[in-house]
Amino acid sequence: MKKVTKNITSFADHLDQQYGKKGTPKRDKFEEGFEAFKLGVMIQELRKEKGLTQEQLAEKCGTTKTYISRIENNASAIRLSTLMRIIREGLGGNLRLSVDM
Predict the structure, then answer these.
(1) Residue 33, pLDDT score
(2) Cα separation of 63 and 57, whole Å?
(3) Which CATH class is domain 14-90?
């Protein structure tokens, strides 16, 4: 029996091929968009864990359901002050930031 090996590409290699190496403008743009996407997913998951609708979360933190929806669906940039308010007042948490160099 002949053994067949397939070329398998790692996710990191795929990103390098699709968007360029880290530090290139195209890759940096992709990474920035991905971070915004992750933030939206995180807010959505936390909101659901708390048993809140988008409208309830919006009321708790002084914004609109539409704005919460846009954040969760990665359709809107979010200001740091608004993010802090959503986390603190809307979800009852604390925001911690870190910088990778």
Answers:
(1) 84
(2) 8
(3) mainly alpha
Are 91 and 47 in contact by the 8 Å Cβ rule? The answer is yes
Write down the domain spans for the chain.
Answer: 14-90
What is the rounded CA–CA span in Å between residue 90 and residue 69? 14
Separation of CA 56 from chain center = 21
The pLDDT of residue 2 is above 70: no
The predicted-structure confidence for 76-100, as pLDDT tens digits, reads as follows 788 899 999 999 999 999 999 888 8
Phi, psi dihedral angles at 72 (to 5 degrees):
-65, -30
At residue 47, the pLDDT reads 97
User: Which tokens hold the place of 14?
Assistant: 């795929």
Pairwise CA distance, residues 47 & 69, whole Å? 11
